UniProtKB/TrEMBL annotation:
It catalyses: alpha-D-xylose = alpha-D-xylulofuranose. InterPro entries: Xyl_isomerase-like_sf, Xylose_isom_bac, Xylose_isomerase. Homotetramer. Belongs to the xylose isomerase family. Binds 2 magnesium ions per subunit. The active site is at H102, D105. It comes from Tunturiibacter gelidiferens. This is Xylose isomerase. Keywords: Carbohydrate metabolism, Cytoplasm, Isomerase, Magnesium, Metal-binding, Xylose metabolism. Its main location: cytoplasm. Mg(2+) 1 binds at E233, E269, D297, D340. GO terms for biological process: D-xylose metabolic process.
């Protein structure tokens, strides 16, 4: 490989919290054993190809500000290779175990469907070669079924069945490529699966189409023996006014309807949770309780802005609560923590990408270490258990298990003339408990 824009940077190393180096990890000691295994295996960080290698700083009001060498090449396939060379050099410098991509991040769209598919296979072979000499593995692959104008009215939920077929074909090939590259998951984010106005939309048809598409994905997964997880990524709005995969609870209802709740899990993104009016930990805890916690897209939004700013995380408090719920859920299994986050438009240097990831990695590692302590201490969990302790009494267990009909509950309650007393929820005490560990 020739020179890349990251060639001059040495591998970012763990130097400890005393270090004042800007290009070192201060909390992410990948080999440190916590809760029985190395941090690297708990956190399973991934670099997102689209934000780190493709994003050029343009926004609705302004032209690109970030100019990478491969963005100026006229030969699109050569540009894709140069981009891949830079990507793997970035993975080398950051020394993170995983990456993620959309088909359109790694390959240019062709003139025709066939050409797009050929490009995809050519470039994924190139990535496979790069992976032979890299430690970085594929956390997940996905299809970009939202950028091209053909997907303007949706992919699976498009009124035009040809767009559905085009999308199914593209997903099939992206799944083939994800399997070939050893991907641990395959993600579906419903980019434009939603609507702008109900005036032109049949909700009934579109949800049926979406159910059919996901069923096809699951069927194909089994047909090709892809051992990874299939993940849906909820988001309530943007780009459409209403996105069908609104949040975890909505996705679960959709999965139940199509009998897919044991086949598909969720990839939860911090800022998507915020846009849905939830905290990240709400989404994590909900998914864990429903048995569909798959993977995480780590980022943050801006509470003052109602759109998807995809910033690198900086808030230790909220990240600690998220990590606590990941730990309580027993970890992420084959999922991981993908930095679905981009540098700001004015952060134009390659080095800015390093600072961004180092900050995000350290923030998550630090939050995880704190959450692990809270978990190991057990006090928080004990106080919660204690709050529900009444349910351990045999008669209340029977009531919850549906073994007591309404009249029996009434008879028992009336006979004892029960008089429940309000009990403190101890919120401030628990907030102090978290702060004591921070
Ligand atoms: C969009 C988003 C996507 C998905 C993958 O908000 O999060 O980048 O993660 O398509
Ligand atoms: Co995402």
């Amino acid at each position: 490989m020739g020179q890349s824009i990251f060639s001059s940077f040495p591998v970012v190393e763990y130097k400890g919290t005393e270090s004042t180096s800007d290009l070192a990890y201060r909390w992410y000691d990948a080999d440190r054993t916590v809760l029985g295994k190395p941090l690297r295996e708990h956190l399973r960080f991934a670099v997102a190809y689209w934000h780190s290698l493709v994003m050029n700083g343009s926004d609705p009001f302004g032209a690109p500000t970030i100019n990478r060498p491969w963005m100026n090449r006229t030969d699109a396939m050569q540009a894709a290779q140069d981009k891949a060379d830079a990507a793997f050099d970035l993975f080398r410098v950051l020394d993170l175990p995983f990456y993620t991509f959309h088909d359109r991040d790694i390959t240019p769209d062709g003139e025709t469907l066939r050409e797009s598919i050929t490009n995809l296979h050519t470039m994924s072979d190139y990535l496979a070669k790069k992976m032979e000499s890299s430690k970085t593995r594929l956390l997940w692959g996905t299809a970009n079924l939202f950028s091209h104008p053909r997907f303007m009215s949706g992919a699976a939920t498009n009124p035009d069945p040809e767009v559905f077929a085009y999308s199914a074909t593209t997903i099939k090939h992206c799944m083939d490529v994800t399997k070939k590259l050893g991907g641990e998951n395959y993600v579906l984010w419903g980019g434009r699966e939603g609507y702008e106005t109900l005036l032109n939309t049949s909700l009934k048809r579109e949800l049926e189409q979406m159910g059919r598409m996901l069923t096809l994905v699951v069927e194909y997964k089994h047909k090709i023996g892809f051992s990874g997880q299939i993940l849906l990524e909820p988001k309530p709005k943007e780009p459409t006014v209403h996105q069908y995969d609104f949040d975890t609870a909505t996705v679960f209802g959709f999965l139940k309807r199509f009998g897919l709740e044991n086949e598909v899990k969720v990839n939860l993104e911090a800022n998507h949770a915020l846009l849905a009016g939830h905290t990240f930990e709400h989404e994590i805890a909900t998914a864990a309780d429903l048995g569909i916690l798959g993977s995480l897209d780590i980022n943050r939004g801006d509470p003052l802005l109602g759109w998807d700013t995809d910033q690198f995380p900086t808030d230790l408090y909220s990240m600690t609560l998220a990590m606590y719920h990941v730990i309580q859920a027993g970890g992420l299994g084959r999922g991981g923590m993908n930095f679905d986050a981009k540098v700001r438009r004015q952060s134009t240097e390659p080095e800015d990408l390093l600072h961004a990831h180092i900050g995000g990695v350290d923030m998550c590692a630090r939050a995880f270490l704190i959450a692990a302590k809270i978990h190991e201490e057990g006090r928080l969990a004990d106080i919660v258990d204690e709050r529900y302790a009444g349910w351990n009494l045999p008669e209340n267990k029977a009531m919850l298990a549906g073994k007591e009909p309404p009249e029996a509950i009434a008879a028992r309650s009336e006979e004892r003339n029960i008089n429940p007393q309000p009990r403190s929820g101890r919120q401030e005490q628990l907030e102090n408990l978290i702060n004591r560990h921070l």
